[in-house]
Amino acid sequence: MYVTQGYHVRNAFLRQPMNSSAADYSVRKHHYASELATFLPREAIIDSPEELAPYESDALTVYRSLPLLAVLPETVEQVQRIMRWCRDNRVPVVARGAGTGLSGGALPHRDGILLVLTRLNRILDLDPERGIARVQPGVANLAISEAAQPFGLYYAPDPSSQVACTIGGNVAENSGGVHCLKYGLTVHNVLEIKVVTIDGDLITIGSQSLETPGYDLLALLIGSEGMLAVTVEITVRLLPLPETARLVVASFAAIRDAGNAVSRLIARGVIPAGLELMDRRAIEAAEAYARCGYPLDAEALLLCEVDGCPEDVERQIALAREVFTGCGAAEIRIACDESERLLLWKGRKSAFPAVGRLAPDYYCMDGTIPRRRLAEVLERISGFSVEYGLPVANVFHAGDGNLHPLILFDANNPGELERTLEMGSRILRLCVEVGGTITGEHGVGVEKINDMCAQFNAAELRQFHALKAAFDPDGLMNPGKAVPTLERCAEFGAMHVHGNEAPHPGLERF
Predict the structure, then answer these.
(1) Mean pLDDT, residues 473-483
(2) Rounded CA gap, 164 and 143, in Å?
(3) Percent of the chain predicted with pLDDT > 90
(4) DSSP state of 239
């Protein structure tokens, strides 16, 4: 989620306490900086409050905290030494990329080190014959496709922030994008990663071949939000640029009709490269921002892109027309050429910043539901909007049921932010209720940690904590994120803990 302005801390659990006086804190900061300077260049260590301020949050600015120090390593060896130093001194460490994350996953720990990986930003190798690229975590998502384009290749996952977000952050959150329905999330497009553990060991997970012996630790590490290891190298799969790509834009007089069209299209065997839904508020905002020719009288808009060989594309276009017409589409438009296709996508890609014009603040939710429940869930979100007195703009990946309701509010109005957060939690719990999940691609971080209690039971949470302990027994890596303790769930009111039993001996600190 994203809040354009305002400041609030949702739960006292997230207020990282000062364990000492201000004077002691300053002495410790100076001491740690001096020790780190024995193996890092002094300019790679940031310790002044003014220079640390840009790192106080990720794109979820509703949660803020200055780290004790930030370090910007330039080599894998430096990352290894930093991790060993943190282990030896029992100092928490939080990894960070470009800071475009939307769940507070990169929120600094006040008594810890912020490990900023943006200087590890090289494309190490691009092999067009094998269709792979080896990159460092600080490489921007879009930069991979730009480097691969001369060879007729590209990297498929394309988050809306792809011009800025880094591949390391994509790995941490298992990011998707508008084309993830056909081409998958980050986990489906990464072959191998190299990670540094809390002990400073460099290990390789996965392989550059199609099969890897042993446990599938790659799927475990991707999406683990920096809680298990720090990714320092990624080998991604590159795909051939589609021979043909066509975009169909269908407008509807009712959002329910657009939601029904999504499930019916997939049921007919059409697997679009991208299938996005926007409601009236999002349409109006995107059109005012991007001037892409969206119909302003529509209550809902579907953008359906199909790609492949020309014959197959034409067949799928005909099926899409038939389905959309049968679901009551008021207008169906097909982009006439590549420039128009890109312009129509520009409106969708710019929808998030465009919605920022509608209110002083907005809160971007991220949950996933079964496609068949789209119409029902959208109507219930509309009911929440009326109940809480907060407008909602919907723009999301309809093809895989990944919702992104944007709750509009003004943090300057007393109580409005609290209502917004409560409504957001209601939406996430609704996703679980209908058979979905509380996150699709933004991760959990600090934003959804309470809502994890609504999705997972005690046994599942114990297993999560056991995995965490296997990689990070002292709980130093990104502590207090993603996975709640059973005690926290009991306090949240979502789980009964018999006899105040901890999820695992010694795990209360995570």
Answers:
(1) 96
(2) 9
(3) 86
(4) E
Contact 197, 173 (CB under 8 A): no
Summarised one tens digit per residue, pLDDT across range 23-41 is 888 999 999 999 999 999 9
**123-240 topology per CATH:** 3.30.465
Residue 84 and residue 88: Cα distance in Å, rounded? 6
CA angle at residue 319 from 314 to 324, to 5 degrees?
125
What fold is seen in the domain 244-353?
Alpha-Beta Plaits (3.30.70)
- 480 within 8 A of 510, measured Cβ to Cβ: yes
Q: What is the mean pLDDT of residues 468-480?
A: 97
Q: Is 7 a residue whose pLDDT tops 70?
A: no
Question: Which residues in 131-198 belong to E strands, given as ranges?
Answer: 132-135, 153-154, 190-196
CATH for 12-116?
Answer: 3.30.43.10
The tally of CA atoms less than 13 A away on the side-chain side of residue 89 is 19
Compute the distance between CA of residue 289 and CA of residue 277 in angstroms, rounded to an integer. 17
In 3D space, the residue among 478, 480, 489 whose CA is nearest the CA of residue 227 turns out to be 478
Q: How far is Cα 385 from Cα 420, in angstroms, rounded to an integer? A: 10
Degrees, nearest 5: CA angle 244-248-251: 170
Rounded distance, CA 438 to CA 444, Å? 8
**213 versus 68: which is more confidently predicted?**
68
The C-alpha R_g of the chain, in whole angstroms, comes to 23
Q: Is 3's pLDDT higher than 60?
A: no
Is the Cβ–Cβ distance between 44 and 73 less than 8 Å?
Answer: yes
> Where along the chain do its domains lie?
12-116, 123-240, 244-353, 452-509
Nearest to 173 by CA among 241, 115, 222: 222
**269, 312 in Cβ contact below 8 A?**
no
What's the token pair of residue 120?
A: 């590890």
Q: Which two tokens stand for residue 340?
A: 């128009």
